[in-house]
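Hi V.,

Quick status before I head out on leave. The structure for the redesign project is tokenized and pasted below; the design run finished overnight.
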């Protein structure tokens, strides 16, 4: 591939420029809109996201308030307390805003190899005043499950002999990932291998797509639609505090990374880039 390296670099650089040009047929947001396996505008998540180990003083306080309000009448005047952190399951999840993305200049690695590696950084939410969404949003439904107990007389903790009960709340959530603010750049690093086929066309294999989104860029709001015994606002406050906790944000971003770097996603992007590279090569517009 050595003899073709300069040609490859020229085509890659030209494709990068065209993918940043909104008047070009290679404009990346427009190409992404055309993808349908899966569709990424919006991207529909297959399955639920289970969030656990949601800890923090405010979460413990909120969980205790819910258990107090949800204490069954049969235990009066005893007061329930939380026996564990809340469990939250996110479902019917959709991710929007992924089409607002532009590539930086590609970097060709291992130029002496027969299959050069190419690394490209993609910048999200940098296109303004275009009608494209300027944030990435993750929306869906959630269920909050809280385990409670009636502590034994004179005790403030749950143990194996404590009476147990539970309560649930359900609603919708909206997680907004915004580049606004210091050090909140939203990027993805794509590493690929490009090989020349027997017909002299290019084949792009995307090996990894690593999302770099700081937790400070993520803000989550919720609306409670139904709740167990007690004040809905108490459930809503607990759910919002739990979802905005460091642990929840870490898990949400990890789940997003897993979705966007799946085999299906990488194969689809690889096919799209392969087609565009070969289109430029066939037209000899470089």
């Amino acid at each position: 591939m050595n003899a073709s390296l300069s040609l490859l670099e020229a085509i890659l650089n030209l494709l990068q420029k065209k993918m940043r040009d909104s008047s070009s047929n290679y404009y990346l947001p427009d190409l992404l809109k055309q993808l349908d396996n899966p569709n990424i505008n919006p991207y529909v998540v297959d399955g639920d996201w289970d969030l656990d180990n949601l800890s923090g003083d405010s979460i413990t306080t909120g969980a205790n308030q819910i258990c107090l309000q949800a204490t069954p009448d049969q235990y009066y005047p005893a007061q329930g307390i939380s026996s564990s952190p809340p469990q939250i399951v996110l479902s019917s999840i959709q991710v929007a805003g992924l089409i607002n993305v532009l590539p930086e200049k590609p970097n060709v690695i291992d130029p002496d190899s027969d299959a050069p590696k190419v690394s490209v950084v993609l910048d999200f939410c940098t296109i303004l005043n275009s009608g494209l969404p300027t944030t990435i949003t993750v929306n869906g439904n959630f269920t909050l499950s809280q385990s409670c107990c009636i502590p034994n007389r004179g005790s403030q903790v749950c143990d194996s002999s404590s009476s147990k009960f539970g309560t649930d709340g359900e609603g919708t959530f909206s997680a907004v990932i915004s580049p606004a603010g210091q050090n909140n750049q939203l990027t993805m690093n794509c590493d690929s291998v490009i090989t020349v086929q027997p017909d002299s066309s290019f084949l792009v294999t995307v090996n990894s797509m690593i999302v770099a989104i700081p937790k400070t860029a993520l803000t989550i709001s919720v609306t409670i639609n139904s709740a167990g015994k007690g004040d809905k606002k108490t459930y809503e406050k607990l759910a919002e505090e739990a979802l905005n906790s460091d642990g929840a944000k870490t898990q949400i971003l990890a789940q997003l990374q897993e979705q966007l770097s799946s085999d299906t996603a990488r194969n689809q992007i690889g096919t799209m880039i392969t087609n565009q590279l070969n289109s430029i090569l066939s037209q000899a517009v470089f």
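Above is the designed sequence. The CA atoms of residues 145 and 168 lie 5 Å apart.

G. will cover questions while I'm gone.

Best,
W.
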